[in-house]
Amino acid sequence: MTSAAETITVTLPDGARREIPAGTPAGRLLEEALGPKRAKRLVLARVDGELRDLAAPLHDGAAVEGVFAGDEAALETLRHTAAHVLAQAVQELFPGTKLGIGPAIENGFYYDFDRETPFTPEDLERIEERMAEIIRAGEPVTRRDLSMDEARRFFAGRGEAYKLELLDDLAREGHESVSVYEQGGFADLCRGPHLPHTGHVAAVRLLHTAGAYWRGDEKRPMLQRIYGTAFFDAKALKRHLKHLEEARKRDHRRLGKELDLFSIQDEVGPGLILWHPRGAALRRAIEDFWREEHRRRGYGMLFTPHIARRDLWKTSGHLDFYAESMYAPMEIDEVRYQIKPMNCPFHIAVYNSRRRSYRELPLRWCELGTVYRYERTGTLHGLMRVRGFTQDDAHVFCRPDQLEGEIDAILDMTLYMLRVFGFDRYDIYLSTRPEKYVGTEDNWERATGALRSALERRGLAFEVDPGEGVFYGPKIDIKIRDCLDRSWQCSTIQVDFNLPERFEVRYAGEDSRPHAPIMIHRALLGSLERFIGVLIEHYAGAFPLWLAPVQCRVLTVTDRHDAWAAEVAERLTAAGFRAETDLRNEKLGRKIRDAQVEKVPYMLVVGDRETADRTVSPRRHKGETLEALSLDEFVSLLETECRRPFTEAAAA
Asked: Which of 121, 327, 358, 521 is most deeply packed, by most CB within 10 A?
């Protein structure tokens, strides 16, 4: 009979308490509680809120519940297990291949390998076939806990140099033991948890390969990374692959070239964008709206230099925190200068150019400021990750009693502008004080409360991200969701207690004494380059009328209609629209197809009847043909359609 000292008490999801033998695995308890039918789908246990292997022994007082195949909570573990299956297949098919790391990532997983010969598409097919065999075999996945010395001997015996380096790092962090997961003769250093056997990896697909420096350091060996994805059922995998295919069709790099929007050229430099006339027209439409909206809401526009004395970045703290992302300094007249990674110090310099009174605050200043940050070549990605980009930057200097109102106004402006661009779904995060911070606790509480209040007043759902604020203040981050439900970080509102102190920013209060204003950093769109990349993919290049680089193209049937076509384009241009003519000696059908491929919103066909009647016959990009209209009627139609996103956003 088991004594009281050898038993523990645990709690099941229904609140029932069970007395069980000490050391009982979580899976065994759950299988008994669930019954054979539900237990078949059991893949993990949640113990005191944390995911654990089913084999994990329970402790006294534990709250235990099951996690099942198909549960969202189990997807990351599924994909981590799939990464181990991938590594096992690779080492079996290509002996001598060394292991890097293999984490689960959003919507999939990858594993890095050290192998001299590059993996080919045919290799990926063989690897995927071997993975299917390992999955069908349902090989048990087991965990072993080893001391640091045991783990070193274990991986040294396998010749896994990268694992030995990871063990050295863990030892420096104070770890005395590590866990190793094994299946079918394969073993990997891993914290877990994992699925109980490989058979639960029901649907897997390898996607592509890429190069990846070990530990992300370009001075270290280049490894081969294999990307894949996995789901609990084939239907979910099929949906995801269809989603990926749609994403490929919308890839802004491909569409940017096809629509002649921008280019990136080696002779200019990687990560540096050349905007072509049509891309510049799109960008100008965005900037014009941005400038006018800021003017309307009481912002002053600033223009600041691209370089400054290096000492400015020392005072701001950027040399302490961002040195690796900054370019090397240049020397001018024996003084070191730095190309700017941020605009903030310049805006502070404008503030400090003269004495300020409490009566002047708040001061709202904005700038479309181009900054430069070093990114490793391997991380560059079209418009999404570049080395030179323009921030839609703004800073507000305000008194403490004005903070809540200013945050409220910024949030209102942010959501309005995002709606105008067609984004009405987003995830919002409130990031609070980290362990290391500057400023007083009172200031942090006041600022965090102001951010929270602004969100709550609008009834906006948000998640608190504890300890994820920046060292100088709390922040709100808004991640928009595009038409494919992908999340993109764009808008941020940050409260800063640090820079006003570093630069001795002050205003004269009602008591005539100097006081430090609160500084709010604020970006609505983020990087214009990145935001335009998101727009291209969201709309698949078929932009709403107000954004389209070419809004109307006048198509002639024969050259005897050229004069009227030119007059139509001229009058539309004079009315403020981006119009052009297609006077080529081509059939009308070809001209229409070309305009559709180039995603021009309106094609205006002019033939004998239109020329005689001085009308146009509009045809929309998606194929709808309208009745012939006079030019005045068509201009009115365009004006109404261009206004619609703004009126709808304001009414929302």
From this structure: 521
Tell me the per-residue pLDDT of 139-162, one tens digit each, with 9 for 90 and over: 999 999 999 999 999 999 999 999
User: 526: which 2 tokens?
Assistant: 């983020």
* Structural tokens at position 582: 């297609």
**C-alpha span between 188 and 182 (Å, rounded):** 7
Q: Name residue, tokens 């008194």.
A: 399
538 is catalytic: no
Among 112, 392, 393, 582, the one annotated catalytic = 393
Specify burial of residue 567 (Cβ count, 10 A radius: 0-12, 13-18, 19+).
Answer: middle
Which entry of 183, 224, 391, 551 is annotated as an active-site residue? 391
Judge whether 393 counts as a catalytic residue. yes
Residue type present at position 228:
G
Active site residue 347: no
* Listed residue (45, 129, 44) closest to 89, CA to CA: 129
Which residue in the list 84, 225, 250, 344 is annotated as catalytic?
344
- Point out the catalytic residue in the list 278, 475, 530, 619: 475
C-alpha distances in angstroms, 589 versus 28, 585, 594, 605?
70, 12, 9, 11
d(CA 195, CA 75): 10
Residue 344 annotated in active site? yes
Residue 119, pLDDT above cutoff 70:
yes
Q: Around Cβ 451, how many Cβ atoms within 10 Å?
A: 27
Q: What residues have CB less than 8 Å from 543, skipping those under 6 apart?
A: 282, 535, 549, 599, 601
Is the CB of residue 498 less than 8 Å from the CB of residue 473? yes
The residues near 166 (Cβ < 8 Å, ≥ 6 apart) are: 101, 189
Residue type, 138: G
Tell me, rounded to whole angstroms, the distance of Cα 198 from its chain centroid.
31
373 is annotated as an active-site residue:
yes
Whether residue 622 lies in the annotated active site: no
276 classed as catalytic:
no
Q: Residues of the chain with pLDDT > 70: what percent? A: 99
Classified as helix, coil or strand, 456 is helix
- Whole-structure pTM value: 0.85
Pairwise CA distance, residues 282 & 216, whole Å: 35
